[in-house]
Design goal:
Order of helices and strands: EHHEHEHHEHHEEH
Strand content: 5-15%
Structural class: alpha/beta
Low-confidence stretches: none
Strand order of the largest sheet: 3-4-2-1-5-6
Number of strands: 6
Largest sheet: 6 strands, parallel
Shape: globular
Mean pLDDT: 89
């Protein structure tokens, strides 16, 4: 594999529900339980390839439109995973950070998330961002609010907002903008993920449903990225047309 690897990879982990139906699981959300194996394997792959930052889209604000049973099952799964996986994350040098409106999803989950962030803050092999109760439009809105709100908490409509200011606020959460975004499950959408940061991100879409995904599928996406030439809208605009 080429040394031209991304520093930051983001993944939309799609296909858990469809996997459950195809495998005749009792519940639609059972696929998320099996999807934890894929998460674990991809994290190992990211550490192996020395990727600096990995961002996983775990739960969107739009997911609240699903049944209350499924939402509660996912919250419980997050709790179980934090408890079960923390020691392995520390052992692998994974620094965990949670992005999103977690307090609005579950107050006790937010407390657990803060504890895990504290316990992994000295880890330096991989920055792992978990986007939970997150949406790209929400994040941009919150960033703008923070820039136009004064110390007294009131809005100053005359405040001048620049693209650089918004980028700085948003990247405080995600560390950097992704070089590569992967979506599994055969869908070709961004689905209100990290909209601001994906402006010049390379995209890779995989047919595999997330519970069937592994680090070798991840490596295949990295290989595809390594062969691409990133222009950022600036260079090599002299293509010849017949």
């Amino acid at each position: 594999m080429s040394n031209n690897l991304p520093n930051h990879v983001a993944i939309i982990m799609d296909g858990n529900g469809r996997w459950s139906m195809l495998n005749q699981c009792k519940n639609r959300w059972d696929g998320h339980k099996y999807g934890i194996n894929a998460v674990r394997d991809v994290i190992k792959g990211a550490v192996e390839k020395k990727i600096k930052t990995l961002t996983l889209f775990a739960f969107s604000k739009e997911n609240h439109q699903r049944s209350a049973f499924e939402v509660n099952a996912l919250i419980n799964l997050f709790r179980e995973c934090l408890t079960r996986e923390i020691d392995q994350l520390i052992q692998n040098g994974v620094k965990l950070k949670f992005i999103g409106d977690i307090n609005a999803l579950s107050e006790d989950l937010a407390i657990m998330a803060k504890d895990v962030e504290h316990r992994t803050k000295q880890c330096n092999q991989l920055n792992l961002n978990l986007a939970i109760n997150y949406s790209g439009r929400w994040h941009i809105t919150e960033a703008i609010k923070s820039l136009i709100t004064n110390k007294e908490g009131s809005i100053n409509p005359d405040h001048n907002i620049s693209e650089a200011q918004i980028t700085k606020v948003i990247n405080q959460d995600f560390i950097s903008e992704p070089d590569l975004m992967i979506r599994t499950g055969g869908e070709f959408r961004i689905s209100n993920f990290i909209l601001w940061q994906l402006a010049y991100t390379e995209l890779f879409f995989d047919e595999k449903l997330w519970p069937d995904y592994d680090k070798y599928d991840f490596f295949r996406a990295l290989q595809s990225f390594s062969k691409r030439k990133r222009r950022f809208g600036l260079e090599d605009a002299q293509e010849q047309f017949a």
